[in-house]
Write a structure and sequence with these properties.
mainly alpha, HTH-type_TetR-like_transc_reg, Arc Repressor Mutant, subunit A, transcription regulation, Tetracycline Repressor, domain 2
């Protein structure tokens, strides 16, 4: 891909849900939907998947159960909407961070920190709760993997495109590095929930960035 070409994963802008026209019922409905999604994220983060009932979500959002069922007929419908919202917002946030970093080696190194910035947020913990909860929810387990496949495909393609900017063509190695780092950061995000000394988590992340520098050096020597 030419150095100056726009990137799907970093330089481009993902399509966000269009705001309904006008100021009437459609916009009120969209606002209610967003309140429910944000309330679900809050509940998932504070109390976990098992305790995030539709009743708890409606109470947190200040929305009647009937209004909630109008937006999301089933709990799975709501949880899938939450997951889609989170991955879309995380994608936007990472793009914004990385667009401010010069292309080349500096941007390649910055990808890890950009992902970690979003991984530490409550929404990421909510998404992890959904990932784990989907294992025991047949309806959710049938629909949730498609959401994550799309999210992880974007997470994998970004480093590959940036690596090609600096002349690295070892796509399989870059993909393996991305998967390893993503798994490590998910683990560190969970660790932050139980670790009273967050400095230890920060130290572990610094080690992860050191490994990436060593990986970058090895690729440079092999090119």
């Amino acid at each position: 891909m030419p150095h100056g070409a726009d990137r799907l994963t970093i330089e481009g802008e993902p399509a966000a849900p269009a705001l309904p026209p006008g100021n009437g019922h459609a916009q009120r409905s969209a606002a209610t939907r967003l309140r429910l999604i944000e309330a679900a994220i809050d509940c998932l983060y504070r109390t976990g998947y098992g305790a995030t009932t539709t009743v708890a979500i409606a109470q947190t959002a200040g929305v009647s159960r009937g209004a909630m069922l109008h937006q999301f007929p089933t709990r799975a419908d709501l949880i899938i909407a939450v997951a889609e919202h989170i991955v879309r917002e995380q994608d936007l946030r990472r793009r914004q961070i990385l667009r401010a970093v010069p292309r080349g080696v500096e941007r390649f190194r910055a990808i890890t920190a950009a992902v970690w910035d979003t991984m530490k947020e409550p929404a990421s913990m909510a998404l992890l709760e959904i990932m784990l909860g989907s294992r025991s929810d047949p309806e959710l387990s049938a629909r949730f993997p498609a959401v994550m496949r799309g999210a992880e495909a974007r997470l994998a393609s970004g480093p590959i495109e940036v690596a090609r900017d600096i002349g690295f063509e070892q796509d399989d190695l870059i993909h393996a590095m991305s998967r390893l780092h993503l798994a490590a950061m998910r683990g560190l995000a969970i660790e932050r929930l139980f670790q009273t000394d967050e400095g230890r988590v920060d130290d572990a992340f610094e080690l992860l960035t050191w490994y990436k520098d060593q990986f970058l050096l090895r690729l440079s020597e092999a090119t």
